[in-house]
Structure formats: C-alpha cells, structure tokens
Write a structure and sequence with these properties.
By secondary structure, the chain is of the alpha/beta class. The chain has 16 helices and 14 strands. Helices cover 40% and strands 12% of the residues. The strands form 3 sheets. Strands 3-10-9-8-7-4-5-6 form an 8-stranded mixed β-sheet, with helices on both faces. α7 packs parallel to α13. The longest helix is centred in the last third of the chain and has 27 residues. The protein is globular.
C-alpha cells in the first residue's frame, strides 16, 4: 500500500478582488477536490502551514477546513491530519445535477450558529429564560386587534407604535433624545450596518474599525468596497491617536463604545468627547453599535454616545435579537437629520418593509413594561453566571487563563498564559463539547490576542462548571 504524502501540494489561484479571503480559500479547495487536483485521501497542509504559506489568518484556515469537514469534503481529526474524504457529497448526485453545481460559485457559510449552543459560545443569550407566555399573550392581543391594513403591508420605516416605544426607551435607558420619525426599523444590527455602509461609503473610502472588530461590521464595509483601517483598542477603548496616525481623514468610524466587541472595554468619557470634537472638525461619520448595552451588572447602563451634546449626527444602531431572542430579527437605526429618505428608499429596494405583526407584538411587549422587567431579570441572571464563571476559572484555570473584571455583556475575554496554541485548543475542544472562539478570530491586524471569548450568558452555573472542568483538562494536556 502506497504511503500518503505528509502534505499534498496545494496551489491556490489568485484571490478575485470581489471575494473575501474565506470564500476564496473555501472555493479554491473545493474546486481542487472536484477537479481531481486534490485526489481522494490526499493529506492537506496543517492550518498553520496553510496560513503561513498564503499570508492569511490561521482562524480563516481553521474555519474553512471545518466548513469543508461538515459538508463532507474533508475528514480527519486534529493530530492525525486533514485529508480529502474518500467519498464526497457530489459522488451521490446525478450527473446532470453534478455538472450544474460545479459551475456555481458557492458562498462560504460559517458553522458558528448550529444548535444547541455549547459552552462557551460568546454571542448567545439565555433563550430558555425568555417569558414565552407573556410574549404569547401580547401576540394574541395583537392578533385579536389585527385589521386588513396590518395584514396587507406595513410602514416602510417601521410600525409607528414600535418607533414611538423605541424613542421612549432610548430616552429613558440610553440618555438619547429623539423623535420616532428619526428611527428606522431593521432586521437587526447587521442590516443596519449594511445600509449604512452602502449609503455612506463609496468604493475605496476609508473606515476606521476597532481592532479587534465585530466580524459582521467588517463584512458590511468590505462588501461596500470600503478600505478598512484597523485602529488599536486599549483599556480606554479605540485610540484616536492611532487612528489619526494610520488615516487622518477617514470617511467613517465604526465603534462599539458601551462594550467593545472582543475585549469588552468601555470607551472612556474623555475619549468619547475627544472623538466628537475630532469628528466635527474632520467631517468623519461616527457609527455607534449599541449591541448589548442593556446588560450591565452594576448601576445603570452607560449612556450612549448619541446622547452626548453635539452627537446628533451619530448613526446609532440597536438590536432586540440579543435582548429578547435571536430569531425575532428586529432592530433599529437612529438616523441623523437629512438621511432618512435615502435609508427608507434603499430599505424598500432590498426587502420592502419589516414584518408588521412581529413589530406590533414587540411594541405591546415594551409598552406594557414587560421588556424593562425582562432586562432587569436578565441582568441579575447574567451577573450570577458571570460570577460563576469567574469563580470556577479562579479555582480550575488559574495559571492557564486570566479573566479580567468585566462590567457588562454576554461574555468575557480570557487570556491564555500557559504558552499553548489557542487554535489547537479550539479544535480539541469539539470532542469535549466545547465551543471556543479565539480572541484572534476578531483581530484584523493584531497578533497579540492569545486567548478566548468565553460566553456565560446562555449557560447555567452547572453547565459553566462542567465546561470549565473540560477546558481545564484541555489546558493541562500537551498540544499534539
């Protein structure tokens, strides 16, 4: 029997200008398999070797390999190597279907949203704690009052009752004074960012992005052909000095000031004021993503930047998909004066209007006080779960992982301090039913982020203890 080579040669074509690195790598490997350039049983380079040889992030290589494994094109386990599967999905398709499929461009879909969530997925709220009976009563009330007009269509900017409820909520909870006419209902933060990127940016316009960054925002601005300028984040948030040094006059600045996506820090008040003064002089558009500001564990939530004096031109993005449940698919965009007609027009061109009945139920849920009560209850639950993770980490992970004190959010950064490779721990964690996200997966340019974003919100103290013990075993073992 012939011996399989350690690494099969893997020549990749040039990346098209309109393709992401993930899509390019995915399609290149899959096309090579379908064309027979990578024969069945051929052993592929390690993710580290592949990333180094092609100048890409190892996170991208790991995600692409995992996607191809799940689709049946690759097989193998960490430590034993990754190989082309003996049988691939296309082998089971009729010839006519196989020919048409091979001519299509396949989009790369991350495998990050499988259900149920496993410890320690960082983006997951505690769905099981949502008051479904209360929501059902609100929905039933809406249906009893529904009329033909509600069933026929909807307001292009969103249901007036929901926009009024959101304006009142923003004033009371986020310190933002606005009118319902300034609010556009969207399917979530991602649609809001997509609309902003397509309307505000022109191809090759520069946008400052926090480094590390929210990957969804990166996708939105890259899809708009914007030039990404990674800006360093420290303990006070985004560094204005670093941004000016890298690109003095960007078209826009994207921020997560209440709870920085990745490191969890809050943008300090001096930095906020400094950014506002600089943006007014430079003409840069500020975009505030307020994605999980409600979940602060002590005191009231930090007021939004949009609520500061002189911040009326900030685009303020919010979502209910984390605060209520992910499948709701409702959020909002506070649009500065003079922009609303353009946003409504583009929104209409992409998906007409948001779903009226879901909006009406949410408006009822907010107006009757259920949303405020739910948030108060979830802050208490998340605070207990955060404390459980910190307590267990101190007991079982000391010397391997360091967890900083965090004041808000659904997850905490955890910094690896035992010299092990975070990506290998991620891959080995799958067998232990752990879902670990490295801090590096959110990095644009930084190479100093060694650790994980450990989610605690979706998991009971018992699940957190079990996950922590499993993680402790992985961190004690020597890398393969």
């Amino acid at each position: 029997m012939s011996k399989i080579p350690t690494h099969h040669p893997l020549a990749l074509p040039p990346k098209p200008a309109d393709s992401t690195l993930s899509r390019w790598l995915y399609e290149s490997i899959r096309d090579a398999i379908l064309a027979g350039k990578l024969p069945r049983g051929a052993r592929l380079p390690s993710t580290r070797s592949l990333a180094d040889s092609h100048g890409i992030s190892r996170r991208i290589a790991v995600d692409v390999y995992e996607q191809l494994r799940q689709e049946g094109y690759l097989s193998g386990q960490v430590g034993s190597g990754t190989m082309v599967s003996p049988k691939i999905p296309d082998d089971y398709q009729p010839a006519s279907v196989k020919a048409s499929v091979q001519t299509e461009r396949q989009s790369f879909l991350p495998a990050s949203y499988s259900r149920p969530a496993m410890p320690f997925r960082p983006i997951e709220p505690a769905i099981s704690e949502f008051p479904m009976e209360t929501w059902a009563r609100c929905s039933a009330k809406v249906m009893r009052q529904a009329n033909v007009a509600m069933l026929a269509g909807g307001d292009l900017a969103g249901l007036p009752a929901l926009r009024e409820a959101i304006a009142a909520y923003l004033g009371a909870s986020r310190g933002v004074s606005c009118s319902p006419d300034q609010i556009l209902i969207v399917s979530g933060a991602q649609q809001a960012l997509d609309l902003i990127a397509r309307i505000v940016m022109k191809p090759d316009d520069s946008v400052w992005m926090e480094d590390p960054a929210y990957l969804g925002a990166l996708d939105a601005f890259r899809n708009a052909k914007a030039k990404i300028i990674p800006v360093h984040v420290d303990e006070e948030g985004l560094s204005l000095a670093d941004g000016i040094r890298r690109c003095p006059k960007p078209r826009a600045v994207y921020l997560t000031p209440a709870h920085q996506f990745g490191l969890g820090v809050t943008l300090s008040l001096p930095r906020r004021l400094e950014l506002l003064r600089w943006a007014e002089k430079s003409g840069a558009v500020l975009i505030e993503d307020d994605y999980d500001s409600e979940f602060r564990f002590s005191g009231r939530p930090i007021p939004a930047m949009r609520g500061l004096q002189g911040a009326e031109d900030i685009f303020h993005v919010g979502t209910f998909n984390k605060a209520i449940f992910p499948s709701l698919r409702l959020g909002y965009l506070l649009v500065p004066q003079g922009w609303m007609d353009t946003f409504v027009s583009l929104r209409f061109q992409s998906d007409r209007h948001p779903p009226t009945l879901s909006q009406a139920t949410l408006a009822q849920f907010i107006e009757e006080g259920h949303f405020a009560r739910h948030l108060r209850r979830m802050r208490a639950i998340y605070g207990e779960r955060r404390e459980a993770l910190q307590r267990d980490a101190e007991r079982y992970l000391r010397g391997a992982l360091e967890l900083p004190e965090i004041a808000a959010g659904l997850y905490t950064p955890a910094y690896l301090c035992n010299g092990m490779d975070p990506e290998e721990i991620v891959q080995r964690g799958v067998a232990s039913k752990l879902e670990l996200w490295t801090l590096a997966r959110s990095a644009i340019e930084r190479t100093d982020l060694r650790g994980f974003a450990l989610g605690f919100a979706a998991f009971t103290p018992q699940e957190i203890r079990k996950g922590t013990l499993a993680l402790a075993k992985l961190l004690e073992a020597k890398a393969a």
